[in-house]
Specification:
Elements lengths: L7 E8 L4 E10 L2 E11 L6 H19 L3 E5 L7 H20 L4 E4 L1 H9 L6 H12 L10 H18 L10 H7 L10
Parallel strand pairs: 1-4, 4-5
Antiparallel strand pairs: 1-2, 2-3
């Protein structure tokens, strides 16, 4: 009897930004993950904010055409004090998502805290800690580790997506602790005093 080989899946991770956008690409075959590439799109010299959005769309489209990802993972916006920065970041994120939608690539979004937690076990981890863990997990070539943190942040998004997708789904969702206790009475020790 022949054992079926797991299919390769390519995940493209994006760390959106209006000055620098990072990307990271991994290959998943069963439980094996390999580093494919990472890098950045530097838009600091572009002054027109709408041209930056076009650059993000075009660059994301090029990445999709080059790597043919099966899944697209992007970092979600975080809530900061500067509303203008949030608006710009939201536009950058939306344009990257639109490029994936145009190519029919399924999209997942992850909060920065969830990404850090998945990679390091600490939602408050530094960018250096995240990069170091990825370097160890994926055996990234040293010359690639010299890139901006935007690249390793994007790779972290892709790796977080792999980790989340490989977790078994829980069988039942509970609405409250009372719901859990009532559904699992044999597992709960009740205080009778």
């Amino acid at each position: 009897m022949k054992v079926a080989q797991p299919q390769e899946k390519i995940i493209l991770g994006i760390d959106p930004g209006t000055n620098v956008m990072g990307f990271g690409v991994i290959s998943v075959c069963g439980k094996n993950v390999s580093f494919l590439d990472m890098g950045t799109l530097d838009m600091k010299k572009t002054k027109d904010p709408y041209l930056k959005l076009k650059q993000i769309f075009d660059f994301t489209t090029e990445l999709i055409e080059r790597f043919l990802p099966d899944e697209f993972a992007i970092e979600a916006q975080f809530f900061g004090k500067n509303v203008q920065s949030m608006l710009k970041l939201g536009r950058a994120q939306g344009v990257a998502i639109a490029a994936a939608l145009e190519r029919d690539v399924p999209i997942c979004e992850y909060a920065p805290l969830k990404i850090k937690m998945a990679i390091t076990g600490n939602g408050q981890a530094s960018k250096e800690q995240v990069a170091d863990m990825l370097h160890r997990f994926l055996k990234i070539p040293n010359e690639k580790m010299q890139l901006a943190f935007d690249a390793t942040d994007a790779l972290a998004v892709a790796y977080c997506h792999f980790l989340q997708a490989s977790r078994p789904a829980t069988e039942k969702k509970y609405k409250s602790w009372n719901d859990f206790v009532n559904s699992n009475s044999s597992r709960v020790v009740r205080n009778t005093k």
